[in-house]
Each structure stands twice: as structure tokens, then as C-alpha cells.
Design goal:
Blueprint lengths: L1 H4 L7 H5 L7 E6 L2 E6 L3 H11 L1
Antiparallel strand pairs: 1-2
């Protein structure tokens, strides 16, 4: 997400929704700051699925 590096000022919901889709990163807007974290890996997804059963 190179777009995030060139953004100036606090983020708005419109700014976040205008970003290109990137399924490798989870994006959250917290107090005007963009928080990005990687999507959970396969072991995490398997454990999560077992807990739902």
C-alpha cells in the first residue's frame, strides 16, 4: 500500500474506502490513524475454524 505512505493528515473513512483492495493486509481506521496488519496465517485460520465447531 504505497498510497498510505504519501497520505498527509488524519485519515477519514472516505480516504480508507478509496484505497485499492489488498487482501494481504487488514486495514482499520482508529482515531484518524490507519492501522494495517497482515491477514491471519493458515494455522490461525485452522484453529479459529475448530473453535467454531
Amino acid at each position: 500500500m504505497s498510497v498510505a505512505h504519501s497520505h498527509i493528515g488524519p485519515w477519514t473513512l472516505s480516504d480508507v474506502l478509496a484505497l485499492p483492495e489488498d487482501h494481504s493486509q487488514r486495514v482499520e481506521l482508529v482515531g484518524g490513524q490507519l492501522m494495517m496488519s497482515p491477514a491471519p496465517g493458515l494455522p490461525h485460520q485452522r484453529a479459529s475454524h475448530r473453535q467454531r465447531q
